[in-house]
Amino acid sequence: MATALRYLDLVLLVAALPVFLAADLPLSAFVVIAAVWLLQHAIELAAERSSSRALAAGNRRAAMGWIGATTLARVWIIALAVLLVGLLDSKDAGLAAAVLAAILFTVHFGARLLGRLFEPEQGVGA
Predict the structure, then answer these.
(1) Which residues contact 49 (CB under 8 A, 6 or more apart)?
(2) 14, 59, 82, 84: least CB-packed within 10 angstroms?
(3) What does the buried/exposed string (b/e) look like for 84-103 if buried means 16 or more CB atoms within 10 Å of the residue's CB?
(4) 3-state DSSP percent of the chain in helix, strand and coil, to 5
(5) Residue 87: its pLDDT value, please?
(6) Distances (CA, A) of 59 to 22, 46, 47, 65
(7) Cα–Cα distance between 92 and 95 in angstroms, integer?
(8) Which residues are within 8 A (CB) of 100 and not within 5 positions of it... i.e. 6 or more apart?
(9) Residue 123, CB-side half-sphere exposure with 13 Å CA sphere
(10) Residue 58, by phi and psi: left (phi above 0), alpha (psi -120 to 50) or beta?
């Protein structure tokens, strides 16, 4: 269940394409947010691996640094992509990109929170 929740935002991203097509929303917004969303997922996975290695080495500060820095970077990357879509294409494209990104972030963070509830608890030092 936790694995299904982990990728719920990607399922939603795929489901957003027919909505963009049916509502005649700017496809540039979808394409840019989809590409940047996949990039931020890759960054998140790399950060989790680096954080796990740092924790295994007993370096909690480095582990938290990886998570904190990449979380901020991911938010900034999405925000800049939304801004650029709005500036380079149109205000409508920027709005569509912003709404899609906000929905994806909400689902992503909510699913991650729910996923933690379904994961087995790890002991201290695990």
Answers:
(1) none
(2) 14
(3) ebbeebeeebbbbbbebbee
(4) 85, 0, 15
(5) 96
(6) 50, 17, 14, 10
(7) 5
(8) 16, 29, 30, 33
(9) 1
(10) left
Tokens at residue 17, please?
């394409």
Would you say 96 and 25 are in contact if contact means Cβ atoms under 8 Å apart?
Answer: yes
Structure tokens at 69: 């820095």
pLDDT of residue 125: 47
Question: Taking the model in full, what pTM does it have?
Answer: 0.85
